[in-house]
Amino acid sequence: MAGLPAATTQFYRDQTTPPETQCWGDGSFLGASGAFIGASIPTTDPVDAGYATLQGRRTVHFAAPSTDPSLIPAIGASVAAQADTPLTVTVGPYSAS
To answer: How many other C-beta atoms are found inside a 10 Å radius of the C-beta of residue 4?
Structure first.
């Protein structure tokens, strides 16, 4: 969908009593984060005729804080390169050594 990346922002929110109705068991909105799409999109409900599929990919990386802020761009580039590189798998016979 053209323009979708420009209409998408990232968010983080902690709120014990959000105004929106929650759909996952409790009424809180704690540690919520992800993409917010601020544009109109086609319906993604398969019950509706002509529904569309919306797929996103998000990579979360957990690490200790950098002691040197000047290294953060290089660390970010390294993490991005790792996320963009497909995993390689090697399979061999089991050996009980």
So the answer is: 14
